[in-house]
Amino acid sequence: MAGPSDDRLIRVDMTNQTVEVVPFPDEWKLLGGRGLSAKILLAECDPGCDPLGPDNVLVMAPGVLAGTAAPTSGRISIGAKSPLTNGIKEANAGGNPGQDLMKLGYRAIVVTGKPQDPSVTYGLDVTAEGATVIENPGAKGLWNYALIDYLAQSYSEKASFISIGPAGEMQMKGASVACTDQEARRPARHAARGGLGAVMGSKGLKYVSIEAGGARVRQPADRKAFAALNKTYTKGYLEGPQMFKYGTSSVTGVANMLNTFPYKNRTEGQSPDVETLDGKNIVASFETRGGGMHNCLTGCIVQCSNIVHDEDGNYKTSALEFETLTLLGANCAIASWDDVADLDRLCDEVGLDTIETGAAIAIYMDAGKMEYGDAEGAKKLLQEIADGSEVGKAIGNGADATGAYTKHHRVPTVRGQALPAWDPRPLKATGLSYASGPMGGDHTAGLIVNPGLPQEEWVRKSQEIQMVNAVCDSSGFCQFVQPSLDDIRQFYAALYGEEISREQIADQAWQILVDEWEFNERAGWTKDDPMPDCIREDPIGPAKLVWDVPQDLVDQVYNRLDASEELFTTKAAG
Questions:
Q1: pLDDT of residue 5
Q2: What are the domain boundaries of the chain?
Q3: Backbone CA torsion sign across 358, 248, 554, 195
Q4: 0.90 exceeded by pTM
């Protein structure tokens, strides 16, 4: 039976390479993923610390429902102070590590300190008996796919892995954290945003292995109610529109129509190459090349992840998504989805956020350092990141660093983090989420795709979707199954055998944001609108749209509104 009395925390001190396994606090039983990460970071991490120094705290926390039979609920959150935003950061990923940790009863791994000898490469082995830090010099410098092949020689076929590539080892601020998927243990699921791979690299930690063995699925307190919820929820999704049947790559046309398919470093909102970048081409390739759709983690009903093959039918990359097609494709005027697939694979190998990297390369092109549309040049740049060249370091450290390196004026970042595809100029309510949200420019924290939304609704919609997504990212549910607060509280109630009220779940949602805002305020953030000049001044679309939202609307998002019915029924979106 699921219950906090059996759950544990793994605490890892990388200064001394020691591990302690401690009981999980009962008062945190409804916290997982993002919410748990925020609670730990606020309590244990100095917000003023150097993000790449010994005082930062790295948290790896599966969602509350991970390890259960709840559909598509096994995601894991990676949290720390971000080297990009200098504020709190959570990025989450699919794959099997979150499922496996929770099946073993581990609610989080908390990593502190920093090795005295930065040349030593460490791994963390997690089993039912506990965890151990080990030296593994053979893992040093390996790209992610080669690393997993290397580790497969020493671990069981059931082991899952969390890892970083060379970018994380070199502590580049655009570095991601990879998780292996369930099908072939490919390191293709990335907690990408915020540079958390650099934090993991600063701890000297190259990978975490999780050996779940024959660990059982976590059993709910009210099995009958939990099974009924699973059945109803799964049936409702499978009989519904399934908007992510072919992944996010299918939304390119809609985004282009809405002027939020950025072209040439966001100087335009539409790309002339939308047809050649459209995800329908990926789907069409399945017939001749092989590949197809799959689920990245055990228990997923969405199967949104595409497997992309090359012209010879060989595996190339997995989960070529809308954001990647936009930032590494349209935003760089790279016209071929096949070239973007190559770039996606390189980013996964080196361990980089495709959004941050695509934005950085577009700035490099906009500054006249490379021709727009030069796909082969972009691929060489990614190789240079792995090699640690001067220009490679600039790109690997993200959009702001590339802007400083090129001395270019057009740098579309919020709080030091590159804006995602969804542009705040046509999507004002989403822009409010970027401006007020504790995650900075991150669509997964508060996306509203409704360009016709009246101004009087912007604040409420932004606040409510931020609250819903905060709880979703704490639950372990994927945003693609679009759970509401009502859905999540009902699953929690069946899991623990106790009523979870609307008031409780709404209070939890707001408290997560409050904890994150407090951390950021202590770190030096102000509430001033952080939108960059290029978004305020460079118009896009026939309506010549710019970011012109008044500061008082940004301020209002920080003040909790009375709960509406929509707060509990709005679906998570990202």
A1: 55
A2: 4-210, 238-418, 428-569
A3: negative
A4: yes
